[in-house]
Specification:
This protein has helices at about 15-25, 125-135, 190-200, 240-250, 255-275, 280-300, 310-325, 365-370, 375-390, 400-415, 425-445, 450-460; strands at about 40-50, 60-70, 85-90, 105, 115-120, 140, 145, 160-165, 170-175, 180-185, 185, 215-220, 220-230, 235-240, 280, 330, 345, 350-355. By secondary structure, it is an alpha+beta fold. The chain folds into two domains: about 5-230, no CATH class; about 235-460, Aminoglycoside phosphotransferase (APH), C-terminal lobe (Aminoglycoside 3'-phosphotransferase, Chain: A, domain 2, Alpha-Beta Complex). The strands form four sheets. Strands 6-7-12-13-10-9-8 form a seven-stranded antiparallel beta sheet. Strands 1, 2, 3, 4, 5 and 11 form a six-stranded antiparallel beta sheet that branches. A hairpin with a 2-residue loop joins strand 12 and strand 13. The chain is globular, with a radius of gyration of 23 Å. It starts with 14 loop residues before the first helix and ends in a 6-residue tail after the last helix.
């Protein structure tokens, strides 16, 4: 495919209006749609770019659209309306059976009238267009496709396939060589999913695949990161699947947990070298503890089962503030922000890698980019071991406890300090994570509520110093 094929820079007027009734039905059904439970009341166009002409056999439109929704009901999630979503919409006269899962609907008016609209990431040809744009560093309207400096490894002809397991974004694998993560809900600004892997690549950290390219949009003087292309780790298994596999066999996970702890510490050490760190004194830690306390109070109001434990859990946060008032300080740095077993890949040779540095997508971008104590990531992983132990068909007594200990031991081997030697900070972050999980499970997966409640009961009784 030549670069000339993708020179058209703006979609025909009326495209969004013709798609509006179809998107109102289709968009809320997507796993990556964040506004579940509230009807879409309308759309406003942020940008639309025609990548393949609408009147050709296959039309392709890149659309950034803001979905407006009714406010959350009382007691529901406090989310602002108008989230911006990235859509790649293909149009054909008829949809072949292989693309049936991608169907959006039949367009009856506008520039794509009498054609069928569908999610183009399911289709080989549109996915090839994106890779070719990255390979050639294309500029198409407000879209910008970049390639890593001195990286000539992106070659044409790699066969694409859509991965179907993701929740909050979409990924296309190209010939077992690259994986393109297409962000779905996007915001303007520096996205840590690109920022941190680039910083780690400059540090030569081998634990995170270095970006080979990325997609961005330049709109109204601001840059929006749209997607990141990274090497595909062929044959790798994510930590969640691996842990459940070992549990099913009744095997321990101690060696893997220890190696994963070392990998986490290596990433933290590299991030601390690559990007600025800050010292958290009394005022900052008090603010941090107040935020944790506020989240606990919100969760206790929403989940009655949490209320009996709230006073004891609150002591985890007051103890942290008290320690800061006595003069203790902590170092904060850039961290992964949403670390769990599913964000880790083990290669066939046994090496661990960390992926998906986007952070918690529901939080504001500025908050996700704040320096934080590295123990936040540690707490997330410790909670993940308990989730894995609960998910297994075969329960192995002491499995989670041994993994938690091995992970911290491995972390200490690489970082030079053990997270368990700062029990006040670790307890505060693990309590904050468990409280978040209680609220999430109560709202979305009530059958799982016992998992964080078990942690709540444990954390309500702090271990002796």
């Amino acid at each position: 495919m030549s670069e000339a094929v993708i020179r058209t820079v703006s979609s025909p007027p009326g495209l969004l209006a013709s798609l509006d009734p179809l998107l109102r039905e289709w968009l809320p059904r997507q796993r990556w749609f964040a506004g579940k439970g509230r009807p879409v009341t309308g759309f406003s166009l942020v940008a639309a770019t025609e990548l393949l002409p609408a009147d050709s056999r296959l039309g392709l439109h890149h659309v950034l659209v803001r979905a407006h929704q009714q406010q959350a009901p009382a007691g529901g999630a406090a989310q602002q309306p108008g989230d911006c979503y990235q859509l790649l919409i293909g149009t054909r006269e008829a949809l072949p059976p292989r693309l049936a899962p991608a169907l959006i609907g039949h367009v009856t008016e506008g520039p794509a009238a009498d054609r069928t609209a569908y999610d183009a990431l399911y289709d080989t040809r549109p996915a090839e267009v994106l890779l070719e744009a990255l390979r050639t560093r294309a500029r198409i309207g407000g879209l910008r496709f970049e390639r890593a400096p001195d990286d000539d490894a992106i070659r044409a002809g790699l066969v694409p396939r859509l991965m179907t397991a993701e929740q909050s974004n979409s990924s296309v694998v190209y010939g077992d060589t690259f994986i393109l993560k297409v962000l779905r809900r996007i915001v303007p600004g520096v996205n840590p999913d690109l920022e941190l892997p680039l910083a780690l690549a400059r540090e030569g950290c081998p634990r995170v695949p270095a970006p080979a390219g990325w997609m961005a949009a330049d709109l109204a003087g601001r840059s929006w990161v749209l997607g990141v292309l990274q090497p595909y780790l062929q044959g790798a298994t994510d930590g969640w699947e691996l842990a459940l596999r070992e549990l099913a066999k009744g095997e321990d996970f101690v060696a893997e947990a220890r190696a994963l702890g070392r990998a986490t510490a290596e990433v933290h050490t590299a991030l601390a070298r690559a990007l600025p760190t800050v010292t958290l004194g009394h005022a900052r830690v008090r603010q941090l503890a107040e935020g944790m306390t506020g989240r606990l109070e919100e969760a206790a109001r929403a989940v009655p089962l949490l209320r009996p434990y709230a006073p004891a859990l609150r002591t985890a946060f007051t103890a942290l503030a008290d320690l800061a008032a006595e003069g203790t300080t902590w170092t904060a740095q850039r961290v992964h922000g949403d670390l769990h077993l599913g964000q880790c890949l083990r290669s066939p040779d046994g090496e661990w890698s960390l992926i998906d540095f986007e952070g918690e997508p529901a939080k504001p971008l500025a908050e996700r980019r704040l320096p934080q104590p590295a123990v936040r990531d540690v707490a997330g992983m410790l909670r993940s071991f308990e989730y894995a132990a609960h998910s297994a068909d075969v329960r192995v007594p002491g499995w989670a406890e041994s993994c938690r200990a091995a992970y911290c031991t491995g972390y200490a081997e690489a970082a030079g300090h053990d997270p368990r030697t700062d029990p006040v900070l670790l307890r505060a972050y693990e309590t904050d994570k468990a409280v978040y999980e209680v609220l999430y499970e109560a709202r979305h997966r009530p059958d799982w509520l016992e998992v964080p409640l078990a942690a709540v009961r444990r954390l309500s009784v702090p271990e002796p110093a």
